């Protein structure tokens, strides 16, 4: 163990979610190695000891350098691993042992993080399309109202 504080180690750690059961620590190691030296790969085991799953569908990759972790997030988020689109985000601090890595809820706090920080071009377009669709149904109705008013007067 080097003399790094927990905070700086955390900055160099990425959360990887959406993993196929075929993915192993070795797979993750190989997938993330191009971004920099890796200290540790952690794939939390299922809660149920007799589960057939090899892991819980997410893991953590700790790099030597925080900048390497940032590169890995930029390049690997939404990429495919074993045909599954994976989510890569900055790891969250563990508040204590009852939450964090061991609990289901902390993982989905990642969603909030992504929503705040990673609005991609696709997301922006989707939001704009959404707005257009919401306005859509209003226009034909307004048009019809105009016709109704015009109709009787013309006759």
TrEMBL record:
<feature type="compositionally biased region" description="Basic and acidic residues">
    <location>
        <begin position="118"/>
        <end position="130"/>
    </location>
</feature>
<dbReference type="Pfam" id="PF00076">
    <property type="entry name" value="RRM_1"/>
</dbReference>
<feature type="domain" description="RRM">
    <location>
        <begin position="12"/>
        <end position="93"/>
    </location>
</feature>
<dbReference type="InterPro" id="IPR034168">
    <property type="entry name" value="PPIE_RRM"/>
</dbReference>
<feature type="region of interest" description="Disordered">
    <location>
        <begin position="112"/>
        <end position="155"/>
    </location>
</feature>
<dbReference type="GO" id="GO:0003723">
    <property type="term" value="F:RNA binding"/>
</dbReference>
<dbReference type="InterPro" id="IPR012677">
    <property type="entry name" value="Nucleotide-bd_a/b_plait_sf"/>
</dbReference>
<keyword id="KW-0694">RNA-binding</keyword>
<dbReference type="InterPro" id="IPR035979">
    <property type="entry name" value="RBD_domain_sf"/>
</dbReference>
<protein>
    <recommendedName>
        <fullName>RRM domain-containing protein</fullName>
    </recommendedName>
</protein>
<dbReference type="InterPro" id="IPR000504">
    <property type="entry name" value="RRM_dom"/>
</dbReference>
């Amino acid at each position: 163990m080097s003399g790094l504080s927990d905070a700086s180690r955390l900055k160099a750690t990425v959360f990887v979610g959406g993993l196929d059961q075929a993915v192993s620590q070795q797979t993750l190691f190989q997938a993330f190695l191009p971004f920099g030296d890796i200290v540790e790969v952690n794939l939390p085991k299922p809660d149920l000891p007799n589960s057939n799953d090899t892991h819980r569908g997410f893991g953590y990759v700790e790099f030597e350098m925080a900048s390497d972790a940032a590169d890995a997030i930029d390049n690997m988020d939404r990429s495919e691993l074993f045909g599954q689109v994976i989510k890569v985000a900055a790891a969250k601090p563990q508040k204590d042992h009852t939450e964090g890595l061991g609990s289901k809820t902390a993982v989905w706090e990642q969603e909030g993080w992504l929503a705040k920080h990673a609005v991609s071009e696709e997301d922006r377009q989707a939001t704009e399309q959404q707005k257009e669709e919401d306005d859509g149904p209003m226009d034909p109705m307004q048009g019809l109202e105009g016709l109704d008013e015009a109709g009787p007067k013309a006759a």
